[in-house]
Amino acid sequence: MTGNDPFISVIIPTYNCARFLMESVGSVLSQTYRPYEIIVIDDGSTDNTKEVLQPVMQRIKYVQLEHNKGSPVVRNIGIQAAQGEYVAFLDADDVWLPEKLQTDRECFDKHPDVGMVYSKHINIDEKGVVFHGAMKKRLPCGKIFVQLFSEQNFIITSSVVVRKAVFETTGLFDEQLFNCQDWDMWLRIAFYFNIAGIDKPLVKYRHNPHSLSKNRDNVLKYQKLVIDKTYAAFKDTMGGISEKLYHKRLASHYAKAGRYYVRIGDKRLAHENFRLSLKHDPLDLRTLRYYFRLW
């Protein structure tokens, strides 16, 4: 590191996450990279969040909101307050490995055309115990917009660092999206900029059963909204979404929803989602098999 190292703003939104928060903040304070600022935005917590932060109050910027406003609003407040050339996101229950920011900075230096960097992660449970989950062998890099649209969101928010200037092109997080606002943002960034994926775990991603992302009905609803929004925004642009790809993506979305409802025993919703999937892709054999099994 040199005296010319760029400043990185670390944004940590938190809502009633006091029991994990100090571990999260501590993982930033333990970074091998300097300089950075830590912006903790308390989204109207009713637990002892402010009290647990007292030992580090002199080393962070603490913003306390009177009422809960939701993740996209809070992250936007953080972006607007950020003084850094780069903006890094860290959820209040996740943990960075010590070399994360240094590795991210080196990646940006190596790829000056890249607008955003993300990395692999380590899965942990509520108690911090590591467990193995599905992960890509090699993270997609470069022009990943179509792949990111075609698949589920494979980018962990706590692994992401963005050049702050990028938001001048993409705009901020969509505050109307109660869920999946991260996927929506990564899609917009990926449309306009190259993306770098670091094939090294730099984050411990905590699987919290109480997280909004675990409310499957809610996730499915907002995934569909993001699919429609992305198609509407980029359907008539170079490198955007064709009508054929849009229908294929909808078929995949409804088929996955149908398989979820099969697993939880809701035959009515399973049948309806398989029907919608076949409307967009009538020849998908896997979905046809599921559909006719329900009769």
Automatic annotation (TrEMBL):
<feature type="repeat" description="TPR">
    <location>
        <begin position="251"/>
        <end position="284"/>
    </location>
</feature>
<dbReference type="InterPro" id="IPR019734">
    <property type="entry name" value="TPR_rpt"/>
</dbReference>
<dbReference type="InterPro" id="IPR001173">
    <property type="entry name" value="Glyco_trans_2-like"/>
</dbReference>
<protein>
    <recommendedName>
        <fullName>Glycosyltransferase 2-like domain-containing protein</fullName>
    </recommendedName>
</protein>
<dbReference type="Pfam" id="PF00535">
    <property type="entry name" value="Glycos_transf_2"/>
</dbReference>
<dbReference type="InterPro" id="IPR029044">
    <property type="entry name" value="Nucleotide-diphossugar_trans"/>
</dbReference>
<feature type="domain" description="Glycosyltransferase 2-like">
    <location>
        <begin position="9"/>
        <end position="169"/>
    </location>
</feature>
<dbReference type="GO" id="GO:0016758">
    <property type="term" value="F:hexosyltransferase activity"/>
</dbReference>
<keyword id="KW-0802">TPR repeat</keyword>
